[in-house]
Amino acid sequence: MSALRTSRPARFGQYAALLAYLVFLAFPFLWLVSTAFKPAPELASLHPTWIPKDPTFANFRQAFDEQPLLGAAGNSLVAAVAAAVIAVAVATPLAYVTARHRGRLASVATGWVVISQAFPFVLVIIPLFLILKNLHLVNSVFGLVLVYVVWSLPFALWMLTGYVRAVPAELEEAAAVDGAGRLRTLVSVTAPLLVPGIVATALFAFVTAWNEFFFALVLLKTPEKQTLPVVLTHFIGAEGVADLGPLAAAAFLATLPSLVVFGFLQRRITGGMLAGAVKS
Amino acid sequence: MRRRILTLTAALALLVTGCTAGNETPDDGVVRLRFQSLAWQKESVDANRQLVKEWNATHPDVQIEYVQGSWDSVHDQLLTSFEGGEAPDIIHDASDDLADFAYGGDLADLRPLLPERLRADIPARSWETTTFGEGVYGVPFLQEPRVIIANRKILESSGVRLPTPEEPWTWTEFRQVTQDLTRTMGSGRYAVAWPLKEPVSVSLNLGLSAGGQLFHREADGRVTVRFTEADAVVAGTIHDQVVNDRTAPRTTLGSGGSDTLPGFFAGKYAMVPLGFAYRQQIAQQAPKGFEWTVLPAPAGDAGLTQGVSPQTLSIAEDSPYKKEAAAFLDFFLRPENMVRLARGDWMLPTGTTALADPSLHTARDGWATGAAVAERLRPAPAQSVRGYPEWKDKVATPAFQEYYSGAIDGAELRRRLVADGNRVLARYQRK
User: Fold this and answer.
1) Do A126 and A215 fall within a single domain?
2) Which residue in A29, A193, B26, B71 has the most C-beta neighbors within 10 A?
């Protein structure tokens, strides 16, 4: 145990490094929040302040007045939730098979995961567009969900395979010895242990779909179907000129669902990951 | 690079899928056209929407659906839509983005579609910006010259002569003025801040004022790059201001126009050369009591001439309702409507009738200065030259950036633009 003890200066250093990392991560978000509440003249101040001198909700009002943010958020929510649910539903059994039956299938699946990550958006977008068009799925939220599922499936599979492998096969064998059938073992023994992994994977798929811009831009034609990231670009003009206040206000609101979902599920994820790690 | 990947992928995908565009006949006899607009500022969006509403109210048989696009990603989005046969019928873009689509057969040649009134109202120099080969592929309707936005108090208190469109500064005088101003402003302050995130378009467009051309079409039709004394005037002035005179800060060279505004409002910079439409941001964000004025860009041997890439309206070649779309353009770009659009975007209309509107000649917010230089605006150099985007990204942008920051001298700039540049262009012009 003594090897784990750290000196006071070392511990101080660790906390300082952690704090610096947290500040680094939080800086853009905090700046976004600060900007969202600043009036136009303060946004062009040579010496900007963290706390707005004259805080205002005008940027939020303008953002809602000018763009259909609620409708776009609704579209994003539908697409992201559907993509997350379908991706997890498809990836979970695949991951189980890949993890438990290490053979040619596992190698092929791993190879597919690696190769699929190598293609950039711009390379697949036009063939994908043509395929969806032939299926009459252009300008359809369902078509967009299909794309999101396909796009996040390889990584979801890779993530879940890791979680399944972390569940000792001996537990399933013990259940079998105790008389549990295959299905009972999966439902009562393996599935509860996989919950943190499933939640983490669903979160990944949700956030990926929630933030995705280019597929939504190209595939959805009518304004009523556009998602939030697409609508946010309507605050940006030529040569990168932006209506900064309303853009920050709208972007701040767009980050809230992800934060809320993480906030609710964080304990579930970490709790599940640590469950059984220490004998009580 | 991204554009080439998209183009290549598009070609392959079409080969594989053998996809064709469909011409749908409306069941109810009502023609529905999709109009993708890139207007983004509230006043501009309001003007666009209002015009669409007015059209729809008076044309029940041809209804326009207004779709808001984004400047940020319009090229990739259009490319994908064209390849998939799902492009909007009426397309808002800029003339420097049309070449690929015009040469690729994605846009309709507007010559047989547009009414004589519209053709005659827009000057030939503006039509040149949307002419590719034999065809005209867009209606140029809004344009913005580059002007100098200045802190009125600093300039007036310094005693320097304020330029007007009739008596602009020469480039030599401009350099002298910035030296005088910087001396009077004190340390840490600069007479001018050049936001040169896009150094090539600024250098080429303003370079026309000194007679710079850079791209020369030879007798056999090929285009080559030559860097003459005239081309060196504007680039040399900026370089000297940053590197030798220290009248312009190095720090803004990589900035966009908006990034320089805090320093401008704080009196750190007395002048900022910006696009005409930036006046809206300045009017919105300037602190109370801040006095600003709009000055013409300096003049050279060619006077106040400068290059522009106007905003354009085009019709998709695949649209089954080109005539109806052209009728909408005719309505949308009537002189009184062009004025509304111009005021909404804080830009200048290309139409001569619209440009004569008194509201665009007021001293307030510098409208009169912009209107006075409108007739000196010419097509941006090289926007129709094949290979220009690669020349710009791979050769000219880094070369100008290094030159303006003092990392390379004029001889090296010339060598790169000409020798390296011509190698790039040659690849696009092989017969």
Assistant:
1) yes
2) B71
